[in-house]
Write a structure and sequence with these properties.
Bound molecules: adenosine-5'-diphosphate, magnesium ion
Number of helices: 29
Oligomer: single chain
CATH class of one domain: Alpha Beta
Radius of gyration: 30 Å
Mean pLDDT: 84
Largest sheet: 8 strands, mixed
Structural class: alpha/beta
Helix content: 40-55%
């Protein structure tokens, strides 16, 4: 146990002198000594104020807790519910391929069972008979009885918690770590300590609210002190919503302010003022393009050219679903730069894509007499050094490449325009490194991730956005189906029929490490690893052999995966494009950009292991020609059966696939995908060098985003350097907490 602490006693006996809460070392707070302080430091808590910023991860609210006797009725509810009760038994089923853990608990009205399929030994050690626990989850049925599968849980442990619940209070539950637990700082103790702290606020001087008064009032936000208190001990849901809203707003406000500042910097720097398109572009349109631009292509192009004519560098995002025709739009802009006597660089994320883009570009540009080159890491030294010198002396006007473009050795004579394709594959540093090879070159980044406009304003906040939201005429909708193992023979026959009709097919296997995400996170926060790289590759390779020798014997079957050299990959891709292969067995290396209009079928194995956006990218590889295309998602038969017991992750995966099969609309898919991601996973900020969001959610908190953006951009416009009296606090928070992001913004 802790020794009585002198300073501790001192603070308690000196209520008259107010102390700065932000400067009060946590170890001198009542109930905390050096040992506990050390544990708190591991989660970033140093001062008493830090402790108030340690927000609950959930709340137990009596009005939202069900009695177990009502569990049967809760079967019909799709949302999560909570039950509180004491553990009656913990039972591990007999050894076998699928060992299960059963935990029964009761609240006096009835008994409910919880079931675990994964990590059963771990969970078996978590629960002890007699403990008071709050279980939360969706009620499902197992052997015709209601149950909870892999529920979330919180130990309540004391009678006082029970009392609190019975009297109708809301109990905060804090994020727990091993270090906190070992130091005796479970939720229950934290609750007690924080309660004491907020009850003795008269002894502390709270920091002045950094948010300007008019921002607080215009947006009806709670003041800092009140909001901090209510985060921990709200009387009802309404109070909780109010205080949470203030902190979400604040978080978004600083984020938007950073974006506004960056925008100011860009808008005020001098760029290259270019002349409008002339003969070269006209010739391109006449002689190279066998089609007319869609209305949104035309509109995007206008926006791009207007930027190029202005005196500031362009900083624009071109957003459009796969196959919407972004590349040709970019090429027109590239030609404008060339006409103005500048060089252009086109950066693609993989060697295959760079090579493919280069093929397209060269085909066009040779006709126009514009010199182009391809630069990738896989090229031999001699070739590369020739390319380097031709870029440097200006012989080459347009260079297409991978990140090989940003190597130090690459020097441009007059780089004036940059295209970055599939920008989500690059970090912002890479984008900047390329920009530094010219003097304020215009920048166009392209992405096939369609996101709602309010969001793109924030995710790509410093970029202007152009959207191509229509497909070229004559495209057929891809038909997508969700199937299980029993359908396999029929599916293979279908593919053979398509090939016999002259079409080609992709068969895709999941493979970790070639993809951007590394696994799924389960509802209780554990990472569920996907197939390892090795086993994934094995599956693809074995699948390939079987398909080639048995299923598709007599047809030409090829294999492509990330472990092959670039030359090998190129050979296979080329063979497929030239139709010397009928079926291509692949891992996700074919994810982006590959263009084979004759391919009409894509069979995706273990579809549940892919993220939604990734599936959408994959599916975009078909449906690019005049023939009807088909995408078949293979999933575990068990997961297709809605009536069977499923873990929440399995059920979620199934929902995801169902939604995907029901629509071709990239916006809808992206929105759903974003909805599923937690607030922490602010995709895009990672690449943009912006701080991650902890509280706000991109989709759910859209209204707050809009308000915070309005407030922040208003301030940045009227007082760009935040020198006014009312903005000094904001300025100092920005400098203190967002220094890294600021330095980063200034550097660009
Ligand atoms: P994205 O890069 O947006 O995925 P691409 O620029 O690769 O799309 O275009 C996909 C295909 O559509 C290409 O073969 C391209 O030549 C063709 N295409 C582009 N614009 C049009 C259009 N307006 N009408 C018909 N086909 C088009
Ligand atoms: Mg493309």
């Amino acid at each position: 146990m802790e020794k009585p602490n002198l300073q501790n006693a001192m603070i308690d006996s000196l209520p008259e002198t107010k102390r700065q809460i932000a400067e009060t070392d946590i170890q001198y707070i009542k109930g905390i000594g050096p040992r506990k302080a050390e544990a708190l430091q591991t989660v970033g808590i140093e001062s008493a104020l830090d402790l108030l910023y340690y927000f609950p991860r959930r709340y137990l609210d009596r009005t939202r807790i069900l009695k177990i006797k009502d569990a049967q009725a809760a079967l019909l509810m799709t949302e999560e519910v909570t039950f509180v009760g004491r553990i009656k038994s913990v039972y591990l089923s007999a050894r076998g391929p699928r060992r299960m853990l059963f935990v029964s608990f009761t609240d006096g009205t009835a008994t409910l069972k919880c079931v675990w399929f994964n990590a059963v030994h771990y969970f078996a050690s978590v629960f002890k008979e007699g403990e008071l626990i709050a279980f939360s989850g969706r009620v499902t049925s197992y052997r015709d009885r209601p149950c909870l599968i892999h529920p979330e849980y919180d130990h309540l442990e004391t009678e006082s918690d029970e009392d609190l619940l019975n009297t109708g209070g809301i109990i905060p539950v804090y994020p727990m770590t091993e270090a906190l637990r070992t130091a005796g700082l479970e939720s229950r103790s934290l609750r007690r300590i924080i309660r004491k702290l907020v009850e003795s606020t008269e002894r502390f001087e709270f920091p002045e609210d950094p948010l300007p008064k008019e921002v607080l009032s215009t947006n009806s936000l709670l003041g800092l002190t009140e909001a901090l208190t209510l985060m921990h001990f709200p009387k009802d849901q309404k109070q909780l919503t109010y205080s949470l809203r203030r902190f979400k707003f604040e978080e978004l406000f600083y984020l938007e302010l950073l974006l506004a500042i960056r925008r100011n910097v860009i808008k005020n720097s001098p760029g290259i003022r270019m002349n409008p398109p002339a003969q070269l572009v006209e010739k391109f349109a006449k002689e190279c393009l066998p089609f007319k631009f869609t209305e949104s292509q035309r509109k995007s192009l206008h926006e791009i050219i207007d930027d190029m004519k202005s005196e500031h560098p362009m900083h624009r995002l071109l957003q459009g679903d796969v196959g919407s025709g972004k590349t040709v739009v970019a090429l027109v802009a590239v030609l404008v730069a060339v006409e103005n006597g500048y060089q252009a660089a086109f950066m693609a994320p993989t060697e295959i894509l760079a090579a493919q883009q280069y093929d397209t570009i060269r085909k066009y540009f040779d006709i126009l007499g514009v010199s182009s080159a391809l630069l990738t890491g896989g090229q031999n030294k001699r070739l590369r050094s020739t390319i380097y010198s031709e870029i440097e002396d200006g012989t080459t006007s347009v260079v297409v490449g991978t990140h090989a473009l940003i190597q130090e050795r690459v020097k441009f004579k007059r780089l004036g325009f940059i295209v970055v394709d599939e920008q989500h594959r690059f970090g912002v540093e890479q984008r900047m490194a390329l920009q530094e090879k010219g003097e304020s070159p215009h920048l166009l980044v392209m992405t096939a991730t369609p996101i709602p406009r309010t969001l793109s304003l924030t995710i790509y906040g410093d970029l202007d956005v152009s959207v191509i939201d229509e497909m070229p005429a004559g495209r057929k909708k891809i038909k997508t189906a969700l199937r299980g193992e029993t359908n396999r023979p029929k599916i293979y026959k279908f593919i053979r029929d398509q090939v016999l009709a002259g079409r080609q097919a992709f068969i895709v296997y999941p493979l970790v490490n070639e993809t951007s995400d590394s696994g799924r996170v389960s509802s209780d926060g554990n990472l569920i690893p996907k197939a390892s790289k090795k086993s994934g590759l094995k599956a693809a390779t074995q699948g390939f052999v079987k398909l080639r020798d048995e299923v598709f014997r007599g047809f030409k079957v090829g294999l492509i995966h990330g472990q092959m050299t670039d030359a090998e990959k190129d050979d296979v891709m080329l063979a497929f494009k030239q139709r010397s292969l009928d079926v291509l067995v692949a891992t996700t290396v074919i994810e982006v950009g590959i263009d084979v209009p004759n391919a009409t079928v894509m069979l995706i194995e273990h579809a549940d292991r892919f993220g939604l956006s990734q599936l959408h990218q994959l599916r975009g590889r078909i449906g690019r020609g005049i023939h009807q295309s088909y995408c078949i998602l293979m999933a575990d038969e068990e997961h297709l059966n809605e009536k069977k017991v499923q873990t929440r992750d399995d059920a979620a995966a199934f929902q995801r696939l169902k939604l995907f099969a029901s629509t071709n609309d990239g916006f809808k898919i992206a929105e759903y995908d974003l909805m599923l991601r937690g607030p922490g996973e602010f995709f895009g900020t990672r690449q943009s060098g912006l701080p991650p969001l902890k509280l706000a959610h991109l989709i759910k908190d859209r209204d707050i985003i809009t308000q915070a953006r309005r407030a922040a951009f208003g301030i940045a416009e009227s007082d760009p350097h935040l020198r006014e009296e009312g903005h000094l606090k904001v300025r100092s928070v920005l400098l203190k907490n967002y220094n890294e992001s600021l330095a980063f913004l200034k550097a660009t």
